[in-house]
């Protein structure tokens, strides 16, 4: 049996995966939905001392409590900010993680915080400005208020999210501790050595398979490991919240990812090779 560990991003919790978790379980998988410390129904544990290490330990503990006899394959899915604690936990438990899934998320780098990567890599625009201003908006210096409904609509890339799901997001969203976003991630080459799957949500997004193929073909060193035959990719024609906008399609994508399916990238041409 395959066990999925689903890790959501800021302001949310395990509740975000309700429909996807049900679909995966119906297909015979074991599912664990992470609620990181200080978020969701663990918001009462929030405090200024919460950092990225706290969230990495949350995910690591979930992995450690999956019986390797019952579920020898652990597919770790990191969504948005959730990829940072997922990558940290995958580094600690590389022997237990069979595949790391980047669900509409950045590609974390050793020595960089989420804020560092947004500052250096996100295109200019309202989303970048809003993310970089989080620390300024934090109450008491550490608690970032959850977006209002108007802010979700304006900045959340909610393409395809039905009204009832948006209402649930607005009702259950929690403030987020600021510390995890600012702490630099420390990971080793054990993470890049894992089989991976990238899922791009292309409606309103800034990356898709074709764009990544062009980056690999250009020879950019940072992405060359993604041409590994164990790395697969999917495009989803939806906004940034696929578990709300297209839960059945996302369920199918995750099951296919666990089976090693998906698009594979060709490596960059060797230096001096003719076109």
Molecular structure report:
The chain is α/β, with parallel strands linked by helices and 275 residues long. The strands form 2 sheets. The chain has a 6-stranded parallel β-sheet with strand order 2-1-3-4-7-8, sandwiched between helices. A two-stranded antiparallel ribbon has the order 5-6. Strand 3, helix 3 and strand 4 form a beta-alpha-beta unit. Helix 1 crosses helix 13 and helix 2 crosses helix 3.
Radius of gyration: 18 Å
What is the subunit arrangement here? Answer: single chain
Number of helices: 13
Number of beta-strand segments: 8
Derived from helix and strand composition plus strand pairing, the structural class reads alpha/beta
Helix/strand order, N-terminal first: EHEHEHEHHHEHHEHHEHEHH
Main pleated-sheet profile: 6 strands, parallel
Give the averaged pLDDT, no decimals.
Answer: 94
Report the principal-axis shape: globular
Question: Which band does the percent of strand residues land in?
Answer: 5-15%
What separation lies between the terminal Cα atoms?
45 Å
Characteristic key phrases:
alpha/beta; 275 residues; 6-stranded parallel sheet; 8 strands; globular; two-stranded antiparallel sheet
In short:
This protein is α/β, with parallel strands linked by helices. The chain has 13 helices and eight strands.
Helix-strand blueprint:
Layout: E1 2-7, H1 18-26, E2 30-34, H2 52-64, E3 73-79, H3 83-92, E4 97-103, H4 114-121, H5 126-132, H6 134-137, E5 143-144, H7 149-155, H8 163-172, E6 176-177, H9 179-182, H10 189-192, E7 196-201, H11 209-218, E8 231-236, H12 242-245, H13 247-258
Parallel strand pairs: 1-2, 1-3, 3-4, 4-7, 7-8
Antiparallel strand pairs: 5-6
